[in-house]
Structures are given as C-alpha cells and as structure tokens.
Amino acid sequence: METVANVSRPVPKWVSRLVDLRWYEWVGWLVEICLAVTFVAVTITQFVEDELRAGWIMIVLTVLFCGPGAWLLVKYRPSAVGKFENQDLALAIMFAIWVVIFIYLIGFMPQHEQGPYGSP
Amino acid sequence: MKDKRMIAIVAFIVWWGVWGGLLTGTPFKLGEAKIYPSDQGLGTVPYVGNDIKNLQRLSIKDFCSFIYGNQPSRGPKGTTFDMANKRKEIPHVASIIHNTTRFGAPEMIEGFWGPVNPKKAELPDKETLTKFVKDFAKYFGAVDVGIADLGPNPEVWFFEDDAFGYPLQIKPAEHRYAIVSINEEKQATHPYPTGWSADSIVYYSKVSKNYWDDDFVAGHIAEMIRMLGYHSWGHNNAYVKSVPLAIMAGLGEYGRFGNLITLKWGSNVRINAVTTDLPLIPDEPISIGVRDVCLKCTRCVDYCPMKAIPIEEMDFMGVHTWKNNFWRCRRATAVGIPNLVDASTCTLCRDVCPFVKDTTNPVHALGRYMVSRSSIGRRFVLSLDYLLYSRWNRHGLQQIMTDRRALLRQANAQYPESNWSNDWFTTGATDVKGRRIYREKNPFGLIAVARGGIGPFHPFYTKEGLEDPTFGKWPGWQDPWGRKIPGYEEGKEGAPRLNLRPTVKMIGSTVLSGVAGSPMVEYALKKMPPEEAMKQQPDTWCGAGFDTACNPMSNSYAW
Q1: pLDDT one-digit tens code per residue, B236-268
Q2: Which helix (H) or strand (E) holds B365?
Q3: What are the φ/ψ torsions at residue B95 (nearest 5 degrees)?
Q4: A25, A38, A40, A45: which to substitute to probe chain B, counting the most B Cβ within 10 Å?
Q5: Closest chain B C-alpha to A12 CA, distance in angstroms
Q6: In terms of DSSP bridges, do strands B260-261 and B253-254 run parallel, antiparallel, or are they unpaired?
Q7: Taking the model in full, what pTM does it have?
Q8: Which H or E element spans position B147?
C-alpha cells in the first residue's frame, strides 16, 4: 500500500516565491517592513491621541512613504533589455516624490498658526 | 544595466538607510558621550560651565526668569496672591495657595532641616555611595536623579533671600554637592482647566501631589544623610536655583521659556534638591538637542498669553540667553485673573512644548531618540511635530485662550502694568549694589526673622495668622459644586474654624489618601454634575487629621 509520505506534493507558489527571493529583495522587504511599521505606529498614535486631523495626514504620508517601496518590490519587473519603459518612469517619479517630501519636511521652517496676539 | 530591478531595490535600501542613519544619528553617535565640552559651558544658563568663577549670590527677584522654580509667592495688595492679607480674611484661599501652589505641605518639609548625627558613619567608596543615594531617591519616587557639583563657592547657588524678601538664615558654605531629583508631573489634565470644574480639581490634586512627592523625596534624602553624620538640607524650589542645578546635574537642558526641559518628560517635572557635604561623584550637563529645537521652535512664544517669552536671546547678567519677562508671566499667573483657579498657574508654554508627549508611547520614544542624537533628526521631528500637533484648537486651547484673554482684559483695567514691581512689595529701597529691595512690611514676618530664621521660626511658617486668623468680613463663597459653606451666613463676622495645618506625618499612604482618596476627587473623576455631587454622602474618609482635605462639606481644598 502506498504511503502518503512518499508522495511528492507540489510546493505552493508563495513558498517558491519566498525561496526565490534574492538577497537584495530580502533586505528590501526588511527595510520596507521597518518603514511601514514605523509609519503605521505613528498613524495609530495620532488616532489614539485623538489627533484625527494628524491621523489623516499620517495616512497620506504612510501611503506616500511606504507605497512606492512596496510597489517597487512587488510590481517593478523591468525587462533585461536596457530600454526605458513606463515602469522606469514610475520609478523615477517615486524617488522624486521622496526627494520632494524630504526637502519639505527637513527644509521648511515651522509655519504654524499664530498665537492669540498675533505672531511676535 | 544588467539588472535594473536589483539596482532600483538597492537604491531604495540605500536611500532609506542613509536617511535612517542621518535621522537617528546612529552611525555618528555610537559610543559618544552626550556631555557638553568642558571648555564650552552651556551658554544658555548663567552660573554654569566656565562661568562658575563669576558666580554671585543673587536675590531671588533677580533670578525669577524661571517660571516654575524660584518665583516670589506674593502678589500686589488686593489680589488673590496677596497672601498676607488673604490668609487672614479668606483662609481657604490661603489654604489652597499654601498647600497646593507653593510649598507642598509643611509636614513634608520637616525633613529638610534637622540635627546631624554627631557620630559619622563609615562610608563606602564614592561610586557605591553615589549609586546608593540615586537608588534611594528613585525608591522614594523620583523619576530621575543627578548630582550637581556646586563648586568651591556653593553659596552662590543659594538665594540671598526667600520668596518674601527676607534674608535666608542659612550658611551653605560647606555644601559641595546637590542631589537633584525630579518628579514627573502627569500630562493627563493639561492644559490646565479654566474655572472651577471637575478638571480643575483633578489638576490641582496633581499639582499638589507633585509638591508632596518632591518634599517627600528631598526630605527623606536629607534625613538619611544627616543620619549618616553629614550635613544636608532639603529644598524644593525655594532656596536654591533649582533649574540650573538640575541642568548641572545632567537632568535636562534649559528651554526657551525658562524651564528645565528633560528628554523624556519635557518640562513636566518638578525639581527638588538636597545640598550636602556628603562626598559624591557629580554628573555633568548633557546635550539632548533642546537648545537646537528651541532655536527653531517658537510655539511657547506664540501661545503665551502675556507675550512674556522672548523670541531672541539677550544678554542677561553676562550670559547670552533667553530670559522671560518675569513680571509679565507673573501678571498672568498671579494677578491677571480674578478667578481663583486661574490665579495660580498658567503652564500654556509647557503644554504646547513639543517635548511634552506621552512618555509611554514608543513612537514618541523614537522621536526623542532622534531629537537627542541627530541635528537632522531634530529638524525632521520638529517639522513633523508642527505638521501633526500644532493646531490652534488642540486640546481645547482655543476656548481656554479665549476665556483667558477676556479675564486678562478685565484684570488689565483693574491693575495697570506700570506699578507692578512697586506694588509687589511695599518698599522701593535699594541695597548697596543698587538693586531694589523687595520686602514686605509684615510685622509677623519681621518678628520671625528677628527670632532667627528657618524651620518653625521661618516667617512663612509662623503661626500668626494661620492658627488664629482674625477674620474680617467673610466673603461670599461657594465651593466648586455651587454649595454654600456650612456654618457660613451672608454678612456674618468671623468664619468657621478651618484646620489649615493638618497634622499628618510623612506617611505615603496618608499622602495618597489625601490626594486620590478624597471624595471630591472621586466625584470629579466620575464627571459627576455639581447638583448630584451635592447630594452624595462620601463613603471614604481619610483620617489623621486630614479632614479639611477630604471632607467634601468643607470649604478647603488643601489636597
């Protein structure tokens, strides 16, 4: 009688994909997960602290900061041929978004609401 | 361009790796001690760093740039802070100020001074002793503790006079070190509530508890050291320059609005100190990025209802620093507001300070880490903080500021600003250095000074006016719940006797029962409406003579 153990079953697709990941993909996913965890934690914090407006801002920021990385890791599969494709354009836009965001966040002086007697 | 995917992903990794490193300072700060360069001094605070040789002993009035520490507790005549008058005619006002606003409880500070054990104990090595003292402070409830070196001339750290303008009768010449500890002041009810409300009761319970905690810690440390056979005095924010001492002890940095700013608790801390000749290892000032943040951030300036906080640094006693306009600040806190609750403290600068965030949240811990380690991180976090937290109506600030402006307008009409420093104390004389002498003409106080100074003979604790108050016409008064005071009739001369000096000793459980166990607090926490609270019969009472604090039918709120 045939035993179940002897039957070689097909490896699930997601397992083979996981195994096939290259080293840079592993590191990339690690970075992406760290990034997402940080941003999601900040977002949750805003809602926990009843800062609803800040929470919505953080949702937008989370998408802007973490989305491109996930897209890069999942969808970006350029052909080996060195011709410029649409997804390369998307990649350039992705980095451009980050550059702009970082310049905004790091470069600007706080432009906040004025106090009760106007800004000094 | 063999593998564009690999290049793109590596670029992604490098991009975030570089930013992560820059924002947290990780590659640059590993192993680096966060200590100010010894040749540089702090720059922002007088009397520290290499300015120590230029130290001079000051009047408390010269030093009151610090809002929380070291402020005179007197207001012009006729205001809610005019304690010498008010404590006779309105004992409950005196009681609130006496017990919650200024000194904590008198019984707690009994441990501040006392006889020294004539037989000196054999001490362990300095490291062990210092660790023991710090553990001791933390065991008694301090959240952080450090040792400040007072230098060869420790007297300069003590004020010449107390908050009333009387000369201090202490000779701190041999006190080489200060054990500075801080207690966390919880943020739960900030910003402080306007008017009598459940929130205001919670708030004042909290403030009082912090003073009690301070005195509890300092009193015990001082007692312990004297039992070891060494000299020590405990201080809350009365007799030493507590903020610079805390900076010297490495607990935090000087903030724009004049407070100590710690990394974890912001300025939500209360400072106490024990000066001693016990041989200890002093700590050094730390750099946690506060100055960088304060240079860019002006939120406290914008929210200050009195515009008392400077936007530019200035030269103050030879040091380039931020210096508040103390009189303006004091005006908002002491006089500006006829409502008693508002009269005590403002704290808006502290409430809006970006360093004040939930201490238990790891997200804010990450932010603090970035701020303390990297200048880019500081900029990033501050920008993000403005983006997320800086809003006019945050935590109901808009309503509070609206209320306050109305009250201030009222007060401005009543008390013109020009006469302030003259009104504050009754004499306009100057001393040999040409400084104004602020001293009141209080016969009881002068007698107390003549009798020799501190402890039970200290003017603040003189029994005159406290135990046998000569009541004037009893003012109309309702408690926070709108109830009449029992025994009070409109227009009646005299008033029901109040126990303003509860006789409890330093017992932690009593402190807690006085604060958290009070039925009034319980009602407040339940958000019980006044009409309902009036009908309640309290089922918890604390003993030990603390009836004024715990009895909801009493008109005293000396938590």
Answers
A1: 765 677 777 888 888 988 888 878 899 999 888
A2: helix B362-373
A3: -65, -45
A4: A45
A5: 24
A6: antiparallel
A7: 0.67
A8: strand B144-149
